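Researcher: I'm preparing a figure for a lab meeting and need a structural model of a single chain. I don't have an experimental structure, so a prediction will have to do for now. The sequence is pasted below. Please return the structure as tokens so I can convert it later.
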Amino acid sequence: MSQLIKLNDNVASIAENEWTVVQLPPSLVEARKQAGKVVLFKLTGEQTVSEEQISGTVIPESGKVIVPLSVFIACKAQLQARINAGEIGVWLDTHEVLADLAEHQSDLNQLPIIAVHVERFADGRIFSLGLLLRTRYSFKNELRAIGDVLRDQLFFLKRSGFDSYLIRADRNAEEAMLSLNDFSAPYQGAVDETRPAFVRYNRVA
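Model: Understood. Here is the structure written out token by token.
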């Protein structure tokens, strides 16, 4: 069964996945010790993708593919015809900068899909990236969450502007889909409803 959940007119369903996510070749990621524990640092501005990884990335010659941001930037000229045909999407990690994508693709809505990869479900930067894409960058097309995507995140991903969710392979997508209705009337304003509850409901004392 497909692990992809998609929203269509605010109605969620399990959908077939038409897009292939292109992965970077593996690389040694620097591990540093902090407070006696080994942690991975991936901070804004830190170079985490090597030229060797970019040149070694294999992009299928046909079909709909979502390529890493670093590969998209490096190979855009070669991919332009497929971008024009709507066959190329972009995915980025939560530590990457949206301004880098906008610098190399001025019209983000020429991309049929942008995906954000979350490496660990506790990384809240995915919500900020969704909000920025929908508001500051006015992205209107499919916004997908990929990686360590779990049931408990979906309602808040939806509020942040995501409308498709590739559920982690070891989880039940149909069960996860139910979480999109966990709350009927959220208090705060967000991408899906900009007005907070106190504005939406005019209560008479």
